[in-house]
Amino acid sequence: MRFTQIAAVSALSALLALPAWAADPSFRCSKVAHEVEDLICKDGELADLDRQLSGLYGVVLRHTPPSQQRQLKSEQRGWLKGRNDCWKDSDQRGCVKAAYEDRIRELQDR
């Protein structure tokens, strides 16, 4: 009985020592720079959307002529700023999700 209690306490302690985030976006959650990034790190669905967008953006960038890559990068920086502005929204999660879904559609249409 005593061993079972010690094992349970040890297991609980190990779980509590894990980082607060449970998701795996394309960026390092240990180096979040914005409240919205913290939200993404704590939400599996948003992290999945982030990985999808990151992969798609990489493919689109590689297939974009060099003369147009600067414009695409500028658009992506603008999109990131817009996504990060979701911290002002009353439904931050919904705003971030919609931002990702819209940008994924935009890139898929290229």
Describe the model.
- With 110 residues, the protein is mainly α.
- The protein has one domain.
- It has helices at 2-16, 35-41, 44-62, 66-84, 92-108.
- The radius of gyration is 19 Å and the shape is globular.
- It starts with a helix and ends with a helix.
Shape: globular
| Tally of contiguous helical segments | 5
**Overall structural domain count:** 1
> Largest sheet, if any?
none
Q: Classify the helix fraction into a percent range.
A: over 70%
Radius of gyration: 19 Å
Distance between the termini: 63 Å
Order of helices and strands: HHHHH
Strand content: under 5%
Give the low-pLDDT segments: 3-21
Structural class: mainly alpha
The overall strand count is 0
Averaged pLDDT: 86
